[in-house]
Amino acid sequence: MSVRVRYAPSPTGNQHIGGVRTALINYLFAKSQGGTFILRLEDTDRTRYAEEYVQNLYDTFKWLGFYWDEGPDVGGPAGPYVQSQRFELYRQHAEQLVAMDKAYYCFCDEERLEKLRQEQIAARKDEIGYDRHCRNLSKDEVARYLAEGRPHVIRLKIPLEGVTVFHDRLLGTIEWKNEDISPDPVLLKSDGFPTYHLANVVDDHLMGITHVMRAQEWIPSAPLHKIMYDAFGWEMPELCHLPMVLGQDGHKLSKRHGATAVNEFRKAGYLPEALINYVALLGCSYEDGRDLYTLQDLISLFRIERLNKAPAVFDYQKLEWFNGQYIRQKDDATLAELIRPWLVDAGLRKPEDAEADALDRAAMPLVRERLRFLADAPNLMAYLYRRLEMPPASEFVPKKLDEAQAALILREARQLLEEYGLDDIPALEERFRERAAAIGRKLGDLLMPLRVAITYSKVSPPLFESMKLLGLEETLARVDAARELLERCREA
Ligand code: GLU
Ligand code: ZN
Question: Average per-residue pLDDT in the chain?
Fold first, then answer.
């Protein structure tokens, strides 16, 4: 039987790391088996639903670059893939369970349920829940209430005793005492909306889902689902609950730990390849001694057996490391294109500008090693685009020297630049070395004021290559401006 798995998010928030991890594992499993990966929108919670979250879902996965074979936007044989378009199916199936005496109508109104809650709280019962009042209504009573048009819900009959046993591919056999399952959960609400349990089970069955891979926090739902599969006489898909993703402090990964929404990583200039690579490693190992995997590698190496039971800890620094690795792998043209939106946003260049394109490409060898995120680009590259605010004079002065000496050093540097130009960088560097020796200074002391003059910072991308990109005229102008600043300061 061909594998069919699904990612079934509720569009009640933006896509976050946990969701992407679940989707990715499902995708990798499907693709490694030649199976089908499905997206199903579980949009029955209308109070927290927002259209923008659906859009965010599509945008996120388009950006990440792995996508479903069947889903609301791409269609498929098992649609519709949006639960709010399937309400009739859920109602039919709930009625079917009632007809089979596996579920029942409950006519209790909110008032009665609230009173029950208050009584249970007052009696300090540890089990707060429905008292199964309507489970034993006679057929006649039910018929009469229905005829009267009384509002009602449909509840699942949880067996009163015994245990429910199900198997999880990772966690093994799990036994759940039926008395520990919430007494008779609602399947269909009075407004005709299904609950998560009903819609989830009906859809997994009707969509031919073979494996349910989802976060471990869903385990408490599994016994209930097992009871429903048994009630319908359906085979339950194989369950595989994925290890949790925790923050460094051992609590479930959340906003407190830092960015969790994929959007935020994207805006900060992470590459999708880095995110996919790192997220795929959360709770799963592929090969010893290796960190970098393309999506194709991950597909060919993925095995359920390689998933861990233990929770995974999300390490922001590790992710940053991956990002740097993937940035380093890009060729100049690609990387220049990737950083373009950030440079445009920072007002350094226009989107369409061939000259700027050429500058960016030429600058990539200089900045590539220094980019942790694409968003670092404007800061690193601004000096190539325009003159920046001059740092204070003291910034130009090498240790143990003063402003006057720094100004003299810039005079020396200017002479060399004028004399030899920027065409032959290695030769020019050699001239600087010779000149440093001749005037009895360290090469570093000769270059330091020059670096600040050109890049406005003591730490910068390679100095000689930067001057070459700026051109001789601009280079000399910056040297002069810095020297004037230092001389002014000597006069003052
Ligand atoms: N709609 C559920 C969620 O938001 C799906 C859980 C499941 O995969 O069964 O995660
Ligand atoms: Zn009732």
Answer: 95
Q: Where are the beta strands (DSSP E) in 54-140?
A: 103-106
Q: What is the pTM of this model?
A: 0.92
- Copy the structure tokens of residue 468: 């070459």
C-alpha 429: how far from chain center: 45
Q: What is the mean pLDDT of residues 420-446?
A: 95
Ion ligand 2: residues, CB within 5 A, are: 106, 108, 133-134
Minimum-distance ligand 1 atom for the alpha carbon of 7: 8
- Tell me which of 255, 309, 350, 458 is the catalytic residue: 255
Q: Which amino acid is at 376?
A: D
> Are 48 and 16 within 8 A, CB to CB?
no
Q: Is 157 annotated as catalytic?
A: no
Q: What b/e string do you get for 267-280 counting C-beta neighbours within 10 Å, with b at 16 or more? A: eebbbbbbbbbbbb
| Sign of the CA dihedral running 402, 407, 413, 415 | negative
**pLDDT on residue 491:** 64
Of the candidates 230, 106, 102, the residue with the CA atom closest to the CA atom of residue 158:
102
Structure confidence by residue, pLDDT tens digits, 144-162 = 999 999 999 999 999 999 9
